[in-house]
Fold each of these.
Amino acid sequence: MNSTPSLRDLSCADDYDPNSMSVEKARETIHRFLIPLAATERVAIRSALGRVLAEDITSPVDVPGHRNSAMDGYAVRHDELGGPLKIAGTSFAGKPFTGAMGVAECVRIMTGAVMPPEADTCVMQEMVTRAGDVANIPAAPEAKIKFKGQNTRD
């Protein structure tokens, strides 16, 4: 009599076996125990935990809906790089900077935080030397900040 072995019989629960089955045979065995799903059902989002989507879901709007920082650093105007900038405030993810960034100013910014509208670039914190409320940011070539918009996400 040729009976189908159980999953437990086919498993490798004990020590290493140099005669263990090949990947191809393992896949064949796994496929024998799979039951394809033929139907789908619509459930409330709170009932969906532990389930598998029947199709991709895409947002009709950009998420997040604002330009944000791709890293911790300083939000600046690219044209003002190369000198000391007064730190006007801080922008956290979930709590944006609400003031206005003046001339020769920057904003300390955290990853995912909203970029101030006046800023066009984020300089990573490792490139900045801070002294009190002043950030000394090197000019573009030294800081490897080659273009406006660097380290930001739209």
Amino acid sequence: MAANAVAGRPADRRLWSRFRDFVELWTDLFSRHELLTYASSIARTMVVAGVALVLLMLGVLGEIGRKDLWFRHVAPQIKSRVLPNVYGGIDETVRHIFAANSPGLIVFAALLSIWEVSGSVRGLSGALNRIYECDETRSWKVRFPISFALAAAMIVSLMGALLLVMAVGGVLHGAASIPFAIARWVGAILLIVLGFALLVRYAPAQSRAKKWASVGSLLVVLGWVVESLVFRWYVESVASFTTAVGSLTVVLAVIGYLYIASIILLVGIELDELLRKSGGRAERGAMRLLRRLA
């Protein structure tokens, strides 16, 4: 009876009504703009693009003399979690890439990565057009060069962020290492936010705000960081890839990771559009809240 009395209070009814409106709003947006369908399409293209990006990253690591990142950090983690034959094949492939490492390999991997990532950019462009409720009026002669340029920008921002976090570590030691580590992570996050802002600005048929930082972009970066930490915990503590069936789940785990990352991206963009339609009042309030939390 006491619970029913509490639930019947006007404040509780208003809170429940707001929550219900919130759920109905986002359910309608997901359905009307087909966010899950576009997220699935983007994730599938990124699976193929990921192979090219790994090849490019290995080529860059070999060129800058950081092969040790593979042998000391990445390879041991993989070796303990997959079948011996699977690890042997992966390690042999990486060694061949390092042995044949050359500027030509990096150029080939870069061009291949741009081609593959541009497909994801064009898929995201279609999703943005649905979110912004605008028609695609650009010809393929315009859309394809834009997608190639945005793909190159995304690759640079992503590779730059990874290199800042992985390859630059250990340059400084002692007391200076802590502020240097913070600066590296901040720089990596800023690079990802910048890449996200370029996508939102130039991928859709109708451009949006010129500002490169927004609540949506911050939400996307935060969501990706949290998702990556959860995925890392899953791989290290729950998943087992040391059986034949477990080896097959690697692909499913990667696809699931990219699918959730695509949903986070589209939700962040959708949130920015909602804030834009509200005249910026909600965004200013959200930014003030973020500053207080910081």
Amino acid sequence: MIRPIRWVLGGALAVAAVEMGVRASGEALPSLRGGVSPFVPSERPGVIALADDVPGCIEEDSNGPPPTAWGMRVGTGPGATLLFAGDSVTLGQGVSPSDTYAVQLGTAYAEAYGVTAEIVNAGVNAAGYCGVFRAVHHHHAHERFDRTVIALFADDLEQRAVVLEGEHVRANPAQIEGWVARLATASHAFNWVWHIALSAAVKDVVASGDPLPPHVRLPGRTVPETTLHNLERAIRAAARFEPIYLLVPPAGLRLCPERPAPNSECEWMVADMHRMAAALDSTNAAWVDLRNVPTEGHVLDVERGWWRRDGRLPVHPNAGGHRAFADAAVQSIIGR
């Protein structure tokens, strides 16, 4: 009778020792370990956010003047004010203001309605999706607009992208249900064993081509779910402005191979545009898909040189590229 008791006590002590040892090896659960670092594309410096996204990307400080890059007035007749928000493409990097899609759409609006269109360009270089929405809220706190056009660019989720390193598989047991989730969340030792078994199972899933469960994340670049949820929240929060969204691709998108290399600029920009399109659809937003607009012949000369010399994807359109975007969006802007 004494021997079984010793075995039980010995087993309990062994489990406790393993638990303490696994806990001492790091604060996070074993399945959640592995470095998480800001994403920096290899081809150009990344935009690294220094603070968490504002919930819903709502600008609370509306006392100061809103960030206006430039303004222009076109047309004749009664007045109308149009707001264009976005990043450096909306700003018109590399072209004159009169050549931007904002001015071209504003001119078409003025001619269609016989008004003087006051074009307010709120483009902010490297704004990220949250910076774009915060600029929209800030402007609407100061002025009324007859049209609000919000451009989401291919890399606007970049500020919240991360790179997973170290562990081959990262998994969050809190995102599943049942006794496995409770044990894997409470016990580091159980989590360690669970993670070993899970990693082996993930290899089989990857080999079969089946989708991974949401609590599993493989190494490489990824966009946190919290970012995508906050993007949807931001779209819903801006709905009262009745905006029209433009989903803007990099000007050199057609230069990408049909099957881009994993974690390359081409691969992650296309993936992020799919994510933003899904967010716009899920929130029933009015948006114009510019991803199929042919702009391979309409990139800035300097960026075309970067592509030939260094393989850096051209992202900014020249005047012809802005015209192509404006032509694709004009009916949506006027029709509203």
